Amino acid sequence: MREGSKVICIDDQWPSGIEKYYTDLPVKNQTYTIRTIEVGIGWDGMAGEIAVTLKEIVNPVSKTPPNRERGFKQERFREVEPPKETAKERLEELEQMV
Predict the structure, then answer these.
(1) Could you read off the pLDDT of 39-95 as tens digits, one per residue?
(2) How far apart are CA 6 and CA 78, in angstroms?
(3) To 5 degrees, how large is the angle CA 5–CA 6–CA 10?
(4) Lateral strand order in the sheet of 77-81
(5) Rounded to whole angstroms, how far apart are CA atoms 23 and 65?
(6) Which of the chain's termini has less CB crowding within 10 Å, N or C?
(7) What is the H or E stretch that residue 46 is in?
(8) What three-state secondary structure class fits 21?
(9) How many Cα atoms occupy the beta-carbon half-sphere of 7 within 13 Å?
(10) Could you give the CA distance from residue 9 to residue 97 in angstroms, rounded to a whole number?
(11) Is the pLDDT of residue 25 over 90?
């Protein structure tokens, strides 16, 4: 799974009160596109979980610096289609083979 991957939501059981941080949430069995992947902050306040943002859903940014958009735990999604390889990536791959 990486930026540009098509994913399907496999877990949409959200904790009570989450709506005060998000305006929109993924729905189980719906397909989305990964916009970003980064280290996120869990509900316990600890960094370390992998979080994704989605092209189809844009939520408000956090009030806590660095004021990033809150993402969703990567484990809530399953990749259904890897991103399309760009011409630049393919050229780099071919150059490495030579």
Answers:
(1) 887 766 677 789 999 999 999 988 878 888 889 999 999 999 888 776 667 677 778
(2) 9
(3) 115
(4) 72-73, 47-54, 31-41, 6-9, 77-81
(5) 20
(6) C
(7) none
(8) coil
(9) 29
(10) 36
(11) yes
Is 22 in contact with 56 (CB distance < 8 Å)? no
Residue at 77: amino acid letter: F
Q: Is 38 helix (H, G, I), strand (E, B) or coil?
A: strand
Residue 8: closest CA among 78, 59, 87: 78
Answer positive or negative: Cα dihedral of 47, 65, 2, 88: negative
84/60 Cα distance (integer angstroms)? 28
**How many whole angstroms separate alpha carbon 25 and alpha carbon 22?**
7
Token couple for 52: 């994704």
Model pTM above 0.70 = yes
**Dist. CA 68–CA 56, nearest whole Å:** 17
